[in-house]
Amino acid sequence: MAVEQEMADVHPPEAEDISEFLPETDCGNCGYTSCLEFAEAVLEEETNPHKCPDLDREFADVFAVIVEMNKDPIPYNLMMEQVPCELIEINGPDKDSPVLITCNFQETVRIMKEILEATSTEAFLLPTHTHGYSVDNAVHETMFKAMEIWKAIKDNAVEARVERPTMIIPGLAEKERNSIRQLTRWEVVVGPVSGFLLPLFILNNK
Ligand code: SF4
């Protein structure tokens, strides 16, 4: 008898989270009664982000790429596969580019790279040692540690690569923010829960 393959969620974006990046005026000019309805329709691919006249063109372009990306769950047999904690440069980042902290689970790093590359987002992606746990599991198992983030920053000489010591941590790791800030003395910004929304988050915070 065939054994059904268990799958792990990749935290695809929710309409509620996306609507926070929209003008939130509920003006109806897109043909939907609210920005939330519009976000739902975009995710269902009934419409596209360019139908909102108040949305910045670059923002709408990035949003459209994200909607089309593969968000299939990950097979559990890939769990715990690790990548080295080495700084990854995405799309030729410069000193003003964001430093994105993630885990060292290879599938998370692969997906993050795909998202950032597909949306032409310039960034430094820094996997930190979580024993191959994904971010949500690492936080649950107390493996998403300030000390490991600090070590990865030092080992990769990240401070010499950026103008300001500011990092973006995954929204799933929000509760670790203070401990990371206290240990590293870096500014710690909490990003979205869904990694698919990171490019929009970065554009919004430019
Ligand atoms: S046109 Fe834009 S601002 Fe107006 S309801 Fe639609 S999504 Fe919201």
Give a quick precis of the structure.
With 206 residues, the protein is an alpha/beta fold. The protein has two domains: 15-68, 3-methyladenine DNA Glycosylase II, Chain A, domain 3 (Orthogonal Bundle); 75-204, Rossmann fold (3-Layer(aba) Sandwich), CATH 3.40.50.11600.
Structural account:
By secondary structure, the chain is α/β, with parallel strands linked by helices. The protein folds into 2 domains: 15-68, Electron transport complex subunit B, putative Fe-S cluster (3-methyladenine DNA Glycosylase II, Chain A, domain 3); 75-204, 3-Layer(aba) Sandwich (Rossmann fold), CATH 3.40.50.11600. Helix content is 34%, strand content 12%. It has 8 helices and 7 strands, in the order E-H-H-H-E-E-E-H-E-H-H-E-H-E-H. It has helices spanning 15-19, 35-43, 57-68, 106-118, 135-140, 146-155, 177-184, 198-204, and strands at 7-8, 74-75, 88-90, 99-102, 123-127, 166-169, 187-190. It has a 5-stranded mixed beta sheet, with helices on both faces. Strand 6, helix 7 (177-184) and strand 7 (187-190) form a beta-alpha-beta unit. Helix 6 packs across helix 7. The longest helix is centred in the middle third of the chain and has 13 residues, at 106-118. It is globular, with a radius of gyration of 18 Å. The mean pLDDT is 94. The protein binds iron/sulfur cluster (SF4). Residues 22-23, 25-30, 32, 34-35, 38, 52, 54 line the site of iron/sulfur cluster.
